[in-house]
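Sequence design from tokenized structure. All designs in this work follow the same two-part layout: the structure record, then the generated sequence. An example of the structure record is given first.
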């Protein structure tokens, strides 16, 4: 039975090894699916030769292996896929402690035609023929493998974000969900915006302790600097609104399955205002459930 927007759910005991095989029609979203699974903590391999699949599965079962969650993409790009995959899948399903799941992605002819038109890529089965002929041939050749699938997901009307949400269900096993690691990172704009930042907030609008002679050599960790900044109403208002916004936003990232979030706070030099605000976020966000918060000051030692 085809599910349009249903999420593939794979229940696995904590002691087992999850082994997700993603296949389906070319252009149905397999690349986006494997990226989503990688974000969820899976060890991912795209276009793995069919004969190597059992070897990778056995490696994931070894004691001490850090590959307890594995996801692979296999499809008609690999020459032996159609002839060997059914036999390989039977081997996977016979392995003790391995919980394999076969997820088949498909889409309507119209949706696939539009995607190939947008990307201007040739269909792997129709290099010298119209794309529609390749789509129809691939659909027919994959019919037997489709029948073996644990989940069938029709991506015709799913965008990238909706497809990711479908695969987020794969993290809902009996093991506790890993916390969202948040880095509150202070920096100075004159030294460049951090490339790793997911969110960037500019606090150069706040009063600058650099222009107070007794505070210039201090940092935003010093009580005197904190007290100076909090004397100004704008500092408290900025901090309250920023904390409120982040306390709303962070649970949305957790629900999405995000693993890391870097919140960059920038001032001119990265020693006073940004440091003070990053330290304040430690208190304001530290009580959130499902969060591990760390504070880093990139430019605090810079002059």
């Amino acid at each position: 039975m085809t599910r349009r927007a249903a999420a593939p759910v794979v229940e696995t005991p904590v002691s087992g090894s999850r082994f997700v095989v993603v296949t389906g029609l070319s252009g149905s979203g397999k690349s986006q699916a494997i990226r989503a699974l990688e974000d969820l903590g899976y060890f991912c391999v795209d276009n793995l030769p069919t004969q190597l699949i059992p070897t990778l599965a056995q490696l994931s079962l070894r004691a001490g292996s850090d590959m307890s969650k594995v996801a692979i993409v296999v499809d008609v790009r690999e020459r032996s896929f159609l002839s060997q995959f059914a036999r390989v899948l039977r081997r996977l399903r016979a392995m003790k402690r391995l919980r394999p799941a076969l997820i088949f992605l498909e889409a309507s002819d119209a949706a696939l035609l539009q995607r190939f038109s947008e990307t201007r890529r040739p269909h792997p089965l129709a290099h010298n023929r119209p794309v529609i002929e390749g789509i129809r041939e691939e659909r027919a050749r994959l019919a037997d493998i489709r029948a073996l699938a644990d989940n069938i997901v029709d991506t015709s009307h799913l965008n990238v974000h909706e497809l990711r949400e479908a695969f987020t269900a794969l993290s809902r096993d009996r093991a506790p969900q890993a916390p969202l690691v948040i880095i509150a990172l202070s920096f100075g704009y004159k030294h460049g915006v951090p490339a790793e930042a997911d969110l960037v907030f500019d606090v150069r609008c706040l009063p600058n302790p650099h222009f107070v002679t007794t505070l210039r050599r201090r940092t935003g960790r010093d009580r005197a600097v904190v007290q100076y900044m909090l004397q100004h109403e704008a500092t408290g208002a900025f901090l309250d609104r920023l904390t409120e916004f982040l306390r709303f936003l962070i649970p949305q990232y957790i629900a999405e399955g995000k693993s890391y979030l870097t919140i960059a706070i920038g001032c001119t030099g990265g020693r006073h205002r940004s440091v003070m605000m990053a330290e304040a976020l430690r208190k304001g966000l530290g009580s959130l459930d499902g969060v591990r918060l760390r504070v880093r000051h990139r430019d605090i030692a810079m002059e």
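Residues 233-256 form the longest helix (24 residues). We note this feature because it recurs in several other targets discussed in the main text.
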